């Protein structure tokens, strides 16, 4: 089908702009996208890192104007863990699937650096969108190390928690100190994008306010005739949403209202892409060759497959050789023990023969003795019977004498 028309204008990139003579219908594409997005809903993940009790849960509750029922953590956990929970939130007709991942036990261990790093880096594969870090009142080595290990994987938005416990002048100094520490440690934090005209001005201004110093609260206090989220003290009230009191509104505007989609895109386009490439390299693949030329994954796969195949064959041959060697060794051992058994058997047989001979001799002696004894007995009996026939009285008398002598 021809796409040219009388109104065609050639362009440099080989693409031509053409005018339409009538309605086609693709002007509804944006509406179709909006409809599809609304039907599918949106996903957003927040990983909230900060020491136990720094105010993470209170801040998240304040940000989304709800109560997420996040249990309070113990301060003496042996390890750092991540606790993830997904919630569905509805505002007007827009559905948001929000996954909140909280660190549990961060900074509570003795060997803090190791524990925190291994935990967060290990679990990062599951988190795709945003990370923000409650930095407390001072940037500790742990905070810096954690941010350094994460900055290529997620978008970091640094936040100063419990900003109501620090004076305004101290706060400014603290903000500048944090920013210079981040720069000197080469930590990349998320910058609100300045390339979109509609938001470039506000985003640039907001980048200058980082790190946001926020106050969170689950309480509402009556100010005039309104109930507002605030923290009440004997000396006054700190309003969470009052821009003179803290940067909470700036954070909410930037994170949720203005840049949520950019954060999602950035995570996917940059961090996820980087993660994907690293994982490929770990598996021995690259989709970019020397001089940054794209490499066909199919070719890389085939080459790797051949490499693995040869390696497999080599290993198989090695194993086979080992097996043959083992069998030979076992055979030799068996043969040796067979010979030992044989000589033992022969020795026993010899002993048995000797014992048998000895026994035969002894038997012969005994048989001779028995024969002699029988002969003697027969002779004695013969003599006795002859004697009793010739002298019976004497014999009787002798018998009687013998019996009597037994009683003396
Ligand atoms: P774990 O989940 O146990 O690690 O704690 P968490 O970081 O979620 O802290 P959580 O929000 O539970 O708050 C801990 C305590 O700090 C609570 O008593 C809060 O009321 C208080 N808190 C939270 N945010 C602020 C704040 O901005 N200022 C002050 N002064 N206190 C706060
Ligand atoms: Mg909590």
Question: Could you outline the blueprint of secondary structure elements for this entry?
Answer:
Elements (H helix, E strand, L loop, with lengths): L8 E2 L5 E2 L11 H12 L1 E8 L6 H8 L17 E11 L2 E11 L7 H12 L6 E5 L6 H10 L4 E6 L7 H17 L12 H11 L4 E2 L6 E4 L2 E8 L2 E4 L8 H11 L1 H23 L14 H94 L1 H14 L3
Parallel strand pairs: 3-5, 3-6, 6-7, 7-8
Antiparallel strand pairs: 1-2, 4-5, 9-10, 10-11
The chain binds guanosine-5'-triphosphate (GTP) and magnesium ion (MG).
Rg of Cα set: 50 Å
The biggest sheet, with number of strands, parallel, antiparallel or mixed sense and barrel status, is: 6 strands, mixed
- The percentage helix is 40-55%
Indicate the structural class. Answer: alpha/beta
Number of separate helices:
10
- How many domains? The number is 2
Sum up the overall morphology in one term.
Answer: elongated
Question: What distance lies between the first and last C-alpha atoms, to the nearest angstrom?
Answer: 157 Å
In the CATH scheme, what's the topology name of the largest domain? Rossmann fold
Q: Please name the CATH architecture of the largest domain.
A: 3-Layer(aba) Sandwich
Bound compounds, please?
A: guanosine-5'-triphosphate, magnesium ion
**Superfamily (CATH H level) name of the largest domain:** P-loop containing nucleotide triphosphate hydrolases
- Portion of residues in beta strands equals 15-25%
What order do the strands of the largest sheet run in, or round the barrel if closed?
Answer: 4-5-3-6-7-8
CATH domain class of the largest domain: Alpha Beta
Number of strands: 11
Oligomer: single chain
Mean pLDDT: 81
């Amino acid at each position: 089908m021809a796409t040219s028309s009388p109104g065609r204008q050639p362009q440099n990139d080989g693409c031509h702009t053409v005018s339409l003579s009538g309605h086609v219908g693709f002007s509804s594409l944006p509406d179709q996208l909006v409809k599809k997005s609304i039907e599918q809903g949106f996903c957003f993940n927040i990983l909230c890192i900060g020491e136990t009790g720094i105010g993470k849960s209170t801040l998240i509750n304040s940000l989304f104007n709800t109560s997420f029922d996040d249990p309070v953590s113990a301060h003496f956990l042996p390890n750092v863990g991540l606790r993830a929970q997904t919630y569905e939130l509805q505002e007007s007709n827009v559905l948001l699937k929000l996954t909140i991942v909280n660190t549990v036990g961060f900074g509570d261990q003795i060997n803090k650096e190791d524990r925190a790093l291994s935990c967060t880096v290990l679990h990062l594969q599951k988190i795709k969108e945003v990370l923000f870090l409650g930095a407390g009142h001072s940037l500790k080595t742990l905070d810096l190390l954690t941010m350094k290990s994460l900055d290529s994987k997620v978008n970091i938005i640094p936040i100063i928690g419990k900003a109501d416990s620090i004076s305004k002048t101290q706060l400014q100094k603290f903000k500048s100190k944090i920013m210079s520490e981040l720069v000197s440690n080469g930590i990349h934090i998320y910058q609100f994008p300045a390339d979109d005209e509609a938001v470039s001005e506000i985003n640039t201004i907001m980048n200058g306010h980082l790190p946001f110093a926020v106050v969170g609260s689950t309480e509402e206090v009556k100010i005039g005739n309104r109930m507002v989220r605030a923290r009440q003290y004997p000396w006054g009230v700190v309003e969470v949403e009052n821009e003179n009191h803290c940067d909470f509104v700036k954070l909410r505007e930037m994170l949720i209202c203005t840049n949520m989609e950019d954060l999602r895109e950035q995570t996917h386009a940059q961090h996820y892409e980087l993660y994907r490439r690293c994982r490929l390299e770990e598996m021995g693949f690259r989709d970019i060759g020397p001089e940054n030329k794209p490499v066909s994954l199919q070719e890389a796969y085939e080459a790797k497959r051949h490499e693995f195949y040869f390696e497999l064959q080599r290993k198989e041959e090695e194993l086979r050789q080992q097996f043959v060697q083992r069998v030979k060794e076992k055979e030799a051992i068996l043969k040796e023990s067979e010979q030992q058994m044989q000589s033992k058997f022969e020795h026993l047989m010899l002993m048995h023969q000797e014992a048998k001979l000895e026994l035969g001799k002894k038997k012969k002696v005994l048989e001779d003795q028995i024969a002699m004894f029988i002969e003697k007995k027969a002779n004695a009996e013969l003599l006795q019977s002859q004697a009793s026939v010739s002298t019976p009285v004497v014999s009787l008398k002798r018998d009687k004498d013998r019996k009597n002598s037994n009683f003396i």
